[in-house]
Structure formats: C-alpha cells, structure tokens
Amino acid sequence: MMALSPNVQSALEIDRLQFSWPGSSKALLQVPELKIAQGEHLFIEGPSGSGKSTLLNLLSGILLPQQGSIRLLGQDLAEMKNAQRDRFRADHLGIIFQQFNLLTYLTPIENILLSLQASPQKAAKVENASREAQALLAQLGLSSVQNNSHSLSVGQQQRVAAARALIGKPEIILADEPTSALDSDHRHRFIEQLFQTAASANASIIFVSHDHSLKSHFEHSFRLTPAAEENDGI
Amino acid sequence: MAFSSLIRLALKSAWSRKATLILSLFSVAVSIALLIGVDQLRNHTKAHFMNSLSGTDLIVGARSGPVNLLLYSLFHLGEATHNIDYQSYLSLQKMPQIDWTIPLSLGDSHRGFQVLGTNQDLYRHYRYADKQALQFAAGKPFNDLYDVVIGSEVARRFHYSLGHKLTLAHGMNPQHAIEHKGQIFTVVGILEPTGTPIDDSLQVSLKALEAIHVGWHNGAPSGLTLTPELARKLAPQPQTLTAVLVGLKNPIMTFKVQRKINQFADEPLSAILPGATLAKFWKTLGMFEKSLWAIGALVLAAALLNILMVLLAPLNERRREIAILRALGCHAGDVFKLFAIETAALMLSASAVGIALFYGLLNLAKYSFPQVLQFMPSLPLLTTQELAGLGLLGILALALSLIPAYIAYKRSLHDGLTPKL
C-alpha cells in the first residue's frame, strides 16, 4: 500500500465508469469522469431509479464496474481481491445509511466502537475509544445518549451512525441520504455538524441524495441521470 | 473482524432474539435428554438383565427350549411344562465334573411373590453381577422346616421384619392361589437388594414345600393337613424339582457336560448356558430397543428442523444487520461465521440443558419409582457412545446452520449495503 498524504491525493477518481447487471445489455449507471481531492466534499444528486444504490455499492467496493475504473485514495478497487476490498472499506471508509443504521442489540457507544473492532488500523488512531466516541457525539450535537439504541429518535440514531462512520478518522465518508428521515430544520443542522466534524478529521464526504436543496453545502456536485427509464431503481 | 468480536456480536445478536431461541433450545434439549435417557436405560436394563446370574455354568431343567427354561427358572416368568425327577438331581450331584448345584422348586407364591424352594446351597453358591454372593441384611438362612428367607423387595413392599409370620399359597395368581392354611412360616432372614429376581422371592427349604403339599393331588388341596410337629418329624424327601443351577469345577468342560446332560438316560433333560441364552433372549428384545431409538431419532430430527426454522425465520429481519456489518468492512465470510457461532452456542447450551434435564428427570423417576430404578446411579456417567452421539449431533447442527448461513451470505453479496426491505 502506498503512503497516503492528505490534501495532495485525490479522494475519489472515477473514469468512464459503466455498470450494468449481468444479462442486461443497457448500462444502468454511467459516470464519465469525476475527481475530488482529499478533504473536499461531493454531492451526488439522483432521482430514484438513477442507480444511487448501485453507485454506493460500487464506491464501497461491494460491486465492481464492468468498464472504467474507480480509484479511492489512488487505489483501484478492481485491482484488489475481495478480502482486500473489505479491509479497505473497514480502514478508509465510513458509511452512513438513510436509516436503521444501528444494531439495536448494542448500545449506541458499542455501535460506534464496532468500527474500531472491524479495523485495527482505525483502532490504532484512537487513544481512548469510548471517550473519543463521546466526543464525536458531542461534536455532532448529542451531548448525552441513552444506553438503549431502541429508544433513540431518528435524528439521534443518525448522529450515532455519523459518529460510527467518523471514528478512527477514515479518509472518506459515504453517506446515503442520511438526512431523508429528518425534517428540514434538523437536516441542515445535521449536515453542518457532519461537515465540521469531518473537517477536523480532514475527511471527504460523498453524499448521495435526491434532495438538491442540500447541494449548496458542497463544493462539488454530480447529477446521476437514469440510464434506462424502464429500470426499476435497483 | 476478529473472531472474539464475532463471538460477542453473535451472542448479543442471538440474545436479542432470545424468546424464539430459548424455545428451540429447549426442544433440542428435551430430545437430547430423551436420547440419553433411552440409551442409559437400555444399557442399565441390559447390564441388570445380564447380571442376574454369574458363575453358573449350566441351568438344567425338563426338556424344553433354552429361552423358555431360562425365563421360568431364573426370571420366574411362565411355568415349567414338566418338572425333573429328584433322582436326576442326585445323579447330577454325583457327576465328577460338577462342583456345586442349587435345586430350584417353583410354583407357590406369597401375595403374588414367587416362593423358591431350594436348600442352603443357594446362599453358598449363588452369584450375581460381578460374582457377588447373596448378603443378609438381617437374620440368617432358613434352618427349620417353617423358616422363610425373604428378598429385599418383599420386605420393602410389605414391611416384613424378622419374626413376621406368613403363609404360602399354591399357584402364582394371587386371586386364585389356594392358601396353605395352618402352615405358618416365620421370617428368619432378609436379603440385601441384588437387582435380580431373588429380590422378589421368598425362599424356603425343599422339604417345607413338600410338607405343605402332603396329600395334594393335581393341584387340589387335601382334607388332610399335617400339624407342624408331625410335618417336622415326617418331612418327606421331595419328589421333583423345577430346575437345577450347576457350577462346574472347570468351565472348559461346559459343552461336554451339557451334551452329557442333554443325553441323560433316565429322563429327557435340557442343559443351557445361561450367559449365551441371556444374550440370545436380549436379542429378541431388540425390536423394543430399536423402536426406542427410532422414536429418539425422530424427536431429534424434529428438533434439528426446529433449529433450522429458528435460524431461517429471522433471515429477512437480519438483512439490515448484515448490511451494517458489511458496511463496517466485515467479509461476507464473517456473516457465515456469525451463523455458525450462533448455532454452536445454541447446541452447546442445548446439550448442557439436555444433560441436566436427563439427570433431573432420572432422579425424579428414581424418587417416584424407587424399586424400578434403585440400581441406577443418581448421576450416571455418559458413555463414550453417548458423548460421541452428542458430538455428532453438534456437527449435524453446524452443518444445518450452513444452509441459513449460505443464504445470508449470498444475500449479503447481492444486497450489498442497500437491502430492499
């Protein structure tokens, strides 16, 4: 693995990416070119059916493109083996889903620490894990948190999920409509808090959403267009 | 993810679904307890059965099938078609290869328990289990004509103690047996429990049986009854016996002596090898044994299907959980491991609960039916066969867990981070 120096390196480089499901002749997803530097944020806007989920799976190395390439932190995901891609995801990515981010049988803090258990590299960057988790939560606007993940509000759940994505200073945060379950007031506040916390870790946020009112927060944006109208939004 | 973290995660995840898991754990535990119970009971019964006699080389009776002879002479089941002549018994005693004999005369009873007419050779030579002799819990062998020694079960059931007076009855059926009125026997000895049919018997001398049957004809009582004083004086020699247990000086001679007895000139006799015949009889009980096993196996199959169901049912709700773990960088293989760990934990606890359940039920049964299970230890060790069976069961369950694990694994590859719920 090459040494990574922040700010010099590009966080994401997409080159003539094409993806289609096996057996389908039409490309589901096409991204000609996209590049953002480490520390910069990208807004990917796409209506439903434009392949957002697929792009998310491609960016996290779960799916591989048939054509073109995706480079994260300078590394081509397609050149890695399966286990290496999993490792890369654990070490360099933090992922926030639209909702239901938490394992309800773990406490919120345990949910956050799961990131460190999955990645020794992240764990090595954190001195006092539970204090760091608390600090992140506070930064994200959640100063006190119950022990029961069930009883958290959606906004609290998303903040715990954000803390889990951010702990251990991953270079890239992948966020899949993390604010769609929040009302508009909370939405902007959440994004601001997410940005501030990401900035202190120098992380790049790749934010996928169909809500283009959020676009103004980002210096880069990209609009996914439905490649085939008849596809049902896989 | 490190294996220790996976274990913690799997257990916490399983605990969050504890209601269904505990139910299926118990269904597996019950079938494990049942299987162990069936096997233990079978081993115990077999050992018990095989232990009824030891050191006896031959059983001699009137000409009949070996199993039949074994059943009526040793287990007091069924009746002898013919008796053997007392003279034949005396001839047997004179055979040079024969070390000792125990005469047995059956046919009378006391409140449904078998009366054994014999002599003191019973206490001298009878051996059971691991060459153990009969031991007296109280008293001594019979001496007087009207002395009776009782087995432990007879003493326990009727609370008889030394000095107790009792009468005998002709025939085995308590409803139809005709009482030998006026012939009062005194309990002079009580035997220790042996786990053999001796426990269920009362022993008197051959002469006593002869004396109480004086004047009887074809099973009908006579008007004439001897007074005890007269009976002691007259005490006629017995005419017939039911069977004779024979010990040889050298067991190598067994087959030779057996052949000789089978070709006995004065009357048709049969000599059987008790060990071989016991084994043969046990084999005829094989159907029973096999059906117990079959029931156990079916219960087990049901339990395993239950495990499978319990693992498959929450697969859908767990898709989100698996997507979260995948997002955190877990390998698809980790998903597989999570299911295997959960199944292993389930099986381990089910085995522990099953074994505890078996011990609990056994002791409950011992408490409720002390006479049936008195020779069964409270905490019998599991046989290697049973442990191997448990191991096999665990492997089988792990193999079954591969099905949901594989489905979850395939799904997680397909769902990636975005399961459609």
TrEMBL record, chain B:
Task: Please provide the record's keywords in A-Z order.
Answer: Cell membrane, Membrane, Transmembrane, Transmembrane helix
Cellular compartment(s): Cell membrane
Q: Where are the transmembrane segments?
A: 292-315, 336-362, 387-409
Please give the InterPro entries that the UniProt record associates with this protein.
Answer: ABC-4/HrtB_transporter (IPR051125), ABC3_permease_C (IPR003838), MacB_PCD (IPR025857)
Q: Which domain of life is it from?
A: Bacteria
Start and end residues of each MacB-like periplasmic core domain: 22-211
Membrane topology, as annotated: Multi-pass membrane protein
Domain ABC3 transporter permease C-terminal: start-end pairs = 294-411
Principal subcellular localization: membrane
Question: Matching PANTHER family, A to Z?
Answer: ABC TRANSPORTER PERMEASE, ABC TRANSPORTER, MEMBRANE PROTEIN
The molecule here is called ABC transporter permease
Species this protein is from: Thiomicrorhabdus heinhorstiae
